Amino acid sequence: MSKAVVSTLYDSDVFRMACRQFDQAADAINLPEEIRDRTKYPRRCIAVSLPVKRDNGSVTVFEGYRVQHNISTGPSKGGVRFHESVTLGEVGALAMWMSWKCSLVGLPYGGAKGGVIVNPRELSATELEHLSRRYMQELIGFVGPQLDIPAPDVGTNEQIMAWMMDTYSNHVGYICPGVVTGKPIAVGGSQGRREATGAGVAFLVGKYLEDMKLPISKSTVAIQGFGNVGSETALALSAMGAKIVAISDYTGAIYNPAGVDLRKALAYLQSERVLKDFDGGDAVSNEQLLELECTVLIPAALERVIHQDNAPKLKCRLLAEAANGPTTNAADRIIEDRGDIEIIPDVLCNSGGVIVSYFEWLQNQQSFYWDRDEVIRKLHAILEKAKESVEYQKRKFKFSRRLAALTLGIGRVAEAKQKRGLFP
Ligand code: GLU
Q1: C-alpha Rg value of the chain to the nearest Å
Q2: What is the pLDDT averaged over residues 115-136?
Q3: CA–CA separation, 110 vs 268, rounded Å?
Q4: CB of residue 228 inside a 6 A radius of ligand 1
Q5: Is the pTM of this model over 0.90?
Q6: Stretch 375-394: mean pLDDT
Q7: At the topology level of CATH, where does 41-177 sit?
Q8: Which residues pair with 63 in a beta bridge?
Q9: Ligand 1 pocket, 227 CB below 6 A?
Q10: What is the dihedral sign for C-alpha 44, 45, 46, 47?
Q11: CATH: 3.40.50.720, 2.120.10.30, 3.40.30.10, 2.40.50.180. Which one for 196-349?
Q12: Are 254 and 280 in contact (CB under 8 A)?
């Protein structure tokens, strides 16, 4: 058998990190050589130029991507990121993680991710609408409720999903809510979707603290990132009795050992758009936040923030990965060797978002809408089952929790590919 070509298209630190995770998992379950590269590398990618008319009359061309990693287990699924540091390699890695995540929690989806290189804060609302619509317009032939279903991610939100849904619907000639998830409720969004990722993180943190015999009412939590996921996680954990001692955004972090007033922080953010100069605690840096003494540390922003330099200095008991890919391979090894920190790996920890996206898509297909209790009950049931299967796999093979989660996710995708067969 000939050795596969190593991808040059996606080559980057973060793509190599996702590939190393895959290789370790594939080795751990002796994944047959003939299925490996087919399971590992993205199926296809679309790169688009997005000309946008600016408010001052000029035109700026943005670059956007959609990577469809796996379409063997269902239509591909995953968010779209608007961020200035987006690269094709990053989107490829994020798409790969979506495949393992959907498959781990048992959703009938493949994995995908999209991204546009843009700082959305620098665009007016009109410019953002033009960009979002143009992105969807360029992807018309490649997305759809049975093909590939975008959703929010870093830098995108419900309003952007509504514009994308509207653009697609105008193209096909009828309302097609199932083409994207994470929409506003008024246009076919689901109850509970906005809070879903944070609610899922909080639910799992609660369960793992229970396993570790650490009472949540005595737990302190530091959260890096106060966007949709970070803020909803903070609210949910605080409602469960935990004390949120630190929060942050890209402008810096706030530390308050007596507990950050979340309502005040959210109101401040609403008026100032950033946490900078928020007076609800001491100003610290994002790097310092990660090294604070706390029960639970929750990275809820970007990839690779926990690395070999700060991993030895972490002072938490539980590391809950609300972000995708926050821990580098080197940091993973350091944390494993230390043996004093439990990790809830990203593909399990933040899966609440895509689980409720699945519910939204189901409700759209059936035009039959559920109440919030039903959504949350079903979300908890899926998370509980996924957690149990990860714990079983971890015990049975003496794997780390990340390896347990990844081997389950990867194993299922590989099995589907094997059963379907390779087109001769
Ligand atoms: N962007 C989220 C994630 O990384 C949600 C994806 C979705 O709902 O499809 O899991």
Answers
A1: 21
A2: 98
A3: 39
A4: no
A5: yes
A6: 98
A7: Rossmann fold (3.40.50)
A8: 49
A9: no
A10: negative
A11: 3.40.50.720
A12: yes
